[in-house]
Amino acid sequence: MNIQRFIEKRKARGLSQSELAKGICTQVTVSRFEKNGQVPTLKILIQLCNRLELPLGELFPRVGIKQPEILEKMEEAEFFLITSEHDRLQTILKNIPFDEIKDSQLLLEYYYLQGFVMIFQNASLMDCLFTFEKLLFEEQKYTSDIYRLLAFTGIGMAYAKEGEIEKAEFYFNKVFKEIYLYTIQSMEDTWRVLNVVFHCGVFYAEKGDLETSDALLEYAISICSDNHVTYYLARAAFQLAKNALAEEKPQEQILELLQDARAYAKINKNRILLEAIQTLKETILSKNN
């Protein structure tokens, strides 16, 4: 994101951070965005850009600071993982020339994305495990805790998909003990921590431990709030709604969670989740007829 363009436009209009923020957000929100790259919610960002008469698209330029083509493809692929568009994710990975990946960080990201898409596309257990083993092997060179936790999460998910719950729980327990202590260092880090926390929450929900699941999903929502991101908010709220349904909580509470999930899913243009939300809502309401 071209934050420098945002800063230049604010200064050109003679606005301080406080003047720009007035009536929209706090001065601290603008400061965090400009200094630390902490992106506010889409609604706030649009309002700030409108006040500056700055088209939002200018923050996402095709020109400017050049990024390697592979890195751009990886970032796009990771977004499709967030929005559950696994076919599009797999297409991007297939078009990345693997032999040209020389950077250790990019190789870690490739294995992590490949492992997760293999789970969702029902690859064999052994193939999934082998991919995550490669991730763990590469992680030892780079020493990145988040990729190790992503690998453990993926291995747990792969075992759970095969019904091997005891093995799955071994890995999820390892993640559960460490993820609360992990310090988020970047926006990309935020996405990956949310990936881990969310899928841990889903696992414990499917296992029937709704109390643990609810705690993890609420933690995911607090991470989103603290870091001003909306990704995974919709999925966390939707899973909380499913948990509430299983716990036989009041229908009003469940529908409120679904409404929250729908609002966030619309912001993120998560078409697949919007369809799932509508289906569950119709199922709940049909029971009243």
UniProtKB/TrEMBL annotation:
<protein>
    <submittedName>
        <fullName>Cro/CI family transcriptional regulator</fullName>
    </submittedName>
</protein>
<dbReference type="Pfam" id="PF01381">
    <property type="entry name" value="HTH_3"/>
</dbReference>
<dbReference type="InterPro" id="IPR001387">
    <property type="entry name" value="Cro/C1-type_HTH"/>
</dbReference>
<feature type="domain" description="HTH cro/C1-type">
    <location>
        <begin position="6"/>
        <end position="59"/>
    </location>
</feature>
<dbReference type="InterPro" id="IPR010982">
    <property type="entry name" value="Lambda_DNA-bd_dom_sf"/>
</dbReference>
<dbReference type="InterPro" id="IPR011990">
    <property type="entry name" value="TPR-like_helical_dom_sf"/>
</dbReference>
<dbReference type="GO" id="GO:0003677">
    <property type="term" value="F:DNA binding"/>
</dbReference>
